């Protein structure tokens, strides 16, 4: 493929003036370096004595066969390794180690999988990324930045197209990759790390993405480091430098243009013409498919030893040491917290931005709440027509009780439908947290604020349909009390989903655990086995903090405490299934039904307080999990 010139496609933040904007153009960071970097996991060596130097304006490719350590090295350079992994020495910027918070403030990591919200448009994606990272610019300046990036990354025509959801097609794969980079770039980083940015794209799409990255580095003096699997020749030639790895050890670090000369002069291996150099290099350092493993390993060790003894390696070590020495003398200082850095938004601003973003997602993406609303509406119609117009007679008492249990327990059980939507939010949060945009508090508050109105709407819709069709106590007070308890039920159930899914961010595991927990609450809430009969273990260990217990109890009180039911009249006289003080009038006082469960009115305030504590408790538990998870 003969690619066009890249000079006309350098990403600029200000396309009108032709100069990069102040917030993106790097004037302080000159180098990223590391020396003799090794990493072990459980005493197993993953990386061994890696050394490298990338200067501002350059783009480095980390390449190697599967299992060579390229992704591990990329995560190590981005300082994203978990505490269980030990690495040394530190990663240096301008020859200096930085505290993690400062390091994260000037670096960004672009995941291999797109960290994009499918329901947002391209323009909205950049707008919200800017709002989450910067608070010190005007609306006009923010709009100009977004417009500049749209033009820079060739996304002007797709500006008002959604990224794409499970039910609606959006932009292409290559455009998503460019948008993913632009989303991180708008936050003003000095270093950008990318995990296999061309993965899943065809040759043209991969070349296009790397072309934009190269232009971004050139025009704005940024440092870009990307792991890459097997690029096309045209894509490979766009990189300035290459770090070639095999089994955690370096085989080459230097200019892509100098590869042929190095292999011919240092190793006596001539790179064949008319062959993709990336493919040829990978063949030389990959021994997984060699017929003679021992011979192949010997050759691999010889090539690695050749690199260690090479003049290029000696020069690289000198350059890295020189950068560190210059920093020690104060000659290449980088001040992270200077007046040129833009002010970050406060917690209130971040929460409202997340609420706004999540609200857009919630009404555009049917998976979030649309499907649940439709599901609960269908459930209400089914419930209302199965328990249809029950008369106020003793024959309806058991059906009324069953309906109350079904309406409260099954609705909370169906909160499992929220698992996939929350899991998407969680994955987005995890990626944005690692890039230093916001933390667990903002995530927890915004999630609660967005979900609460929808849960109230679901409670109203469900109740309007099912309550009057089933002919529960026909008073406004009783109706709104029912709505209130149903709303608390859904709040608690969604809090349980948030906690379980945060604890186990896997769709299958979280779904199974939430279903199991709700099954447990249904078993001990007082309907299946009355509280007076329930054995002491289940009663004192689970019953009293079962939110379904308080919902079922108060819905029962709401229906039966102030209502009477007619007994059956036969030729032999009046027969009442429950004996109360109204038996002589051939009636059953509803309190007689409640006495079987040990329920009495007058404790609603206390029960509401307990429900609030359970709801807050689930949210705090979810917040704690998010806070502690690395």
From TrEMBL:
Assigned GO CC terms: membrane
Database matches in SUPFAM superfamilies: P-loop containing nucleoside triphosphate hydrolases (SSF52540)
Start and end residues of each ABC transporter domain: 32-272
Keywords per UniProt: ATP-binding, Hydrolase, Membrane, Nucleotide-binding, Transmembrane, Transmembrane helix, Transport
Protein name: P-loop containing nucleoside triphosphate hydrolase protein
Record's subcellular location: Membrane
GO molecular function, one term: ATP hydrolysis activity
Record keyword Cell division present: no
Family: Belongs to the ABC transporter superfamily. ABCG family. Eye pigment precursor importer (TC 3.A.1.204) subfamily.
InterPro entries: AAA+_ATPase (IPR003593), ABC2_TM (IPR013525), ABC_transporter-like_ATP-bd (IPR003439), ABC_transporter-like_CS (IPR017871), ABCG_dom (IPR043926), P-loop_NTPase (IPR027417), Plant_ABCG (IPR052215)
UniProt keyword annotation of Transport present: yes
Region ranges (Disordered): 1-24
First-listed, main subcellular location of the protein, grouped into a coarse class: membrane
SMART domains with a match to the protein in the record: AAA
Composition skew (Polar residues), residue ranges: 1-11
Membrane topology (UniProt): Multi-pass membrane protein
Natural source organism: Triangularia verruculosa
Transmembrane segments: 366-388, 403-423, 444-470, 482-500, 507-524, 608-626
Source taxonomy: Eukaryota, Fungi, Dikarya, Ascomycota, Pezizomycotina
């Amino acid at each position: 493929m003969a690619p066009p010139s890249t000079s006309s496609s350098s990403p600029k933040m200000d396309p009108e003036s032709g100069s990069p904007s102040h917030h993106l153009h790097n004037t302080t960071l000159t180098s990223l370096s590391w020396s003799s970097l090794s990493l072990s996991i459980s005493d197993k060596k993953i990386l061994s004595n890696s050394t490298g130097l990338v200067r501002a304006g350059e783009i480095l490719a980390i390449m190697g066969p599967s299992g060579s350590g390229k992704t591990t090295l990329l995560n190590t350079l981005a300082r994203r390794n978990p505490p269980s992994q030990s690495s040394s020495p530190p990663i240096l910027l301008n020859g200096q180690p930085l505290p993690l918070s400062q390091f994260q403030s000037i670096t960004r990591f672009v995941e291999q999988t797109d960290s994009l919200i499918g329901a947002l448009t391209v323009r909205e994606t950049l707008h919200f990324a800017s709002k989450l990272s910067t608070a010190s610019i005007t609306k006009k300046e923010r709009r100009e930045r977004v417009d500049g990036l749209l033009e820079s990354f060739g996304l002007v025509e797709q500006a008002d197209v959604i990224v794409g959801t499970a039910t609606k097609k959006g932009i292409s794969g290559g455009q998503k990759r460019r948008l993913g980079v632009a989303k991180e770039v708008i936050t003003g980083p000095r270093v950008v790390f990318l995990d296999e940015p061309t993965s899943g794209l065809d040759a043209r799409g991969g070349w296009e993405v790397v072309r934009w990255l190269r232009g971004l580095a050139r025009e704005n003096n940024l440092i870009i480091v990307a792991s890459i699997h097997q690029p096309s020749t045209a894509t490979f030639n766009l990189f300035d430098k290459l770090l070639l790895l095999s089994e955690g050890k370096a085989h080459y670090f230097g200019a892509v243009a100098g590869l042929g000369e190095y292999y011919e002069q240092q190793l006596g291996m001539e790179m064949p013409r008319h062959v993709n150099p990336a493919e040829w290099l990978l063949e030389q350092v990959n021994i997984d498919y060699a017929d003679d493993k021992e011979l192949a390993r010997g050759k691999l060790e010889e090539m690695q030893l050749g690199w260690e003894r090479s003049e290029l390696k000696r020069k690289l070590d000198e350059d890295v040491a020189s950068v560190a020495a210059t920093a020690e003398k104060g000659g290449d200082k980088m001040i992270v917290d200077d007046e040129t850095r833009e002010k970050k938004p406060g917690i209130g601003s971040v929460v409202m931005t997340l609420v706004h973003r999540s609200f857009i997602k919630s009404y555009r993406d049917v998976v979030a709440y649309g499907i649940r609303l439709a599901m609960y509406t269908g459930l209400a119609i089914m419930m209302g027509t199965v328990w249809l117009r029950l008369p106020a007679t003793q024959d309806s008492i058991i059906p009324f009780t069953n309906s109350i249990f079904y309406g409260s327990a099954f609705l909370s059980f169906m909160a499992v439908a929220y698992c996939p939507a929350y899991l998407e939010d969680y994955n987005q949060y995890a990626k944005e947290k690692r890039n230093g945009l916001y933390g667990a508090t903002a995530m927890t508050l915004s999630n609660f604020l967005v979900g609460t109105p929808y849960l109230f709407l679901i409670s109203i819709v469900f109740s309007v349909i099912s309550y009057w069709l089933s002919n529960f106590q026909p008073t406004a007070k009783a109706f709104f009390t029912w709505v209130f308890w149903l709303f608390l039920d859904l709040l608690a159930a969604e809090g349980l989903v948030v906690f379980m899914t945060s604890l186990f961010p896997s769709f299958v595991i979280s779904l199974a655990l939430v279903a199991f927990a709700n099954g447990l609450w249904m078993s001990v809430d007082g309907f299946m086995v009355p509280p007076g009969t329930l054995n002491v273990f289940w009663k004192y260990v689970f019953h009293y903090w079962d939110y379904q217990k308080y919902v079922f109890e108060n819905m029962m009180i709401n229906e039966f405490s102030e209502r009477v039911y007619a007994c059956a009249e036969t030729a032999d006289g009046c027969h009442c299934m429950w004996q109360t003080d109204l038996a002589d009038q051939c009636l059953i006082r509803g309190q007689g039904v409640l006495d079987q469960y040990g329920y009495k009115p007058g404790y609603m305030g206390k029960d509401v307080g307990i429900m609030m504590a359970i709801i807050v408790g689930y949210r705090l538990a979810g917040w704690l999990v998010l806070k502690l998870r690395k």
